[in-house]
């Protein structure tokens, strides 16, 4: 344990830089996925058949193993290896939890509230942005939270295709297992603990956001 702690102290700047790169690609992917998913949810939540098709396609994508998905995306000319292919894969994986929760949240709004808003003369868009979306927000945020924690783990695998982040140390450690260097376990364990720490930090961030942005009556 003391050797591992010495390793962390010696490599702390390196691990921090990898963690920042890891967090950046996750955040970019989640922002893109949230915009796409919320827009899709708004378009399909009133039509059960179309919503089922959209969620089914996204669910199928989620069943594809990450390495297989990277392999399918790499031949696309503008993606190749590195940041772009990992970003696209993360966006694809993040779509389902956010879209599903957007649809669920919007459908869960009490019809009586919508009818009351109609009776007050509110138009469709005004009802959507003033009533339906705010009431659905806690459920949508939960979807974003689940997608974020999930993509933190998947982003680590992206290092296999030259993606950024803590996965670089994990795969570097796995590549030298059994060699005389003795850094194999330190590299893999340091990267793994970094991924876990990032996932916990993101989760705590969303807990704070939920408390700040959700009215007391909806908590």
List keywords for this structure.
about 220 residues; elongated
Offer a concise description of the structure.
The chain has nine helices and no strands. The chain has one domain: Orthogonal Bundle (MetI-like fold).
Describe what this molecule looks like in 3D.
The chain contains 9 helices and no strands. It has 219 residues and is mostly helical. The longest helix has 34 residues, at 124-157. The protein is elongated. The N and C termini lie far apart (42 Å). The model has no long low-confidence stretch (mean pLDDT 86).
Instruction: Give the percentage of residues in beta strands.
Output: under 5%
Secondary structure: number of strands: 0
Please outline the major beta sheet.
Answer: none
Order of helices and strands: HHHHHHHHH
Highest-level CATH class: Mainly Alpha
Rg computed from alpha carbons, rounded to a whole number of angstroms = 21 Å
Number of helices: 9
Distance between the amino and carboxyl termini: 42 Å
Tally of domains: 1
Fold topology:
Elements: H1 2-10, H2 12-44, H3 48-63, H4 66-73, H5 83-107, H6 111-119, H7 124-157, H8 167-175, H9 184-213
Helix pairs in contact: 2-5, 2-7, 2-9, 3-5, 4-5, 5-7, 6-7, 7-9, 8-9
């Amino acid at each position: 344990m003391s050797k591992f702690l010495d390793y962390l102290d010696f490599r702390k700047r390196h691990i921090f830089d990898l963690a920042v790169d890891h967090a950046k690609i996750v955040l970019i992917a989640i922002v893109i996925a949230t915009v796409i998913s919320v827009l899709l949810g708004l378009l399909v939540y009133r039509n059960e058949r179309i919503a089922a098709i959209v969620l089914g396609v996204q669910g199928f994508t989620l069943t594809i193993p990450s390495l297989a998905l990277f392999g399918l995306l790499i031949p696309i000319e503008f993606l190749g290896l590195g940041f772009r292919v990992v970003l696209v894969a993360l966006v694809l994986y993040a779509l389902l939890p956010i879209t599903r929760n957007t649809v669920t949240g919007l459908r869960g709004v009490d019809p009586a509230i919508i009818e009351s808003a109609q009776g007050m003369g509110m138009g469709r868009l005004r009802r959507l942005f003033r009533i339906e979306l705010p009431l659905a927000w806690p459920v949508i945020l939960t979807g974003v939270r689940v997608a974020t924690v999930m993509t933190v783990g998947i982003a680590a695998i992206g290092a296999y295709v030259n993606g950024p982040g803590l996965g670089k140390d994990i795969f570097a450690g796995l590549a030298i297992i059994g060699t005389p260097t003795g850094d194999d376990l330190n590299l893999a364990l340091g990267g793994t603990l970094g991924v876990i720490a990032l996932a916990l930090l993101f989760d705590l961030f969303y807990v704070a956001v939920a408390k700040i942005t959700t009215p007391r009556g909806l908590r």
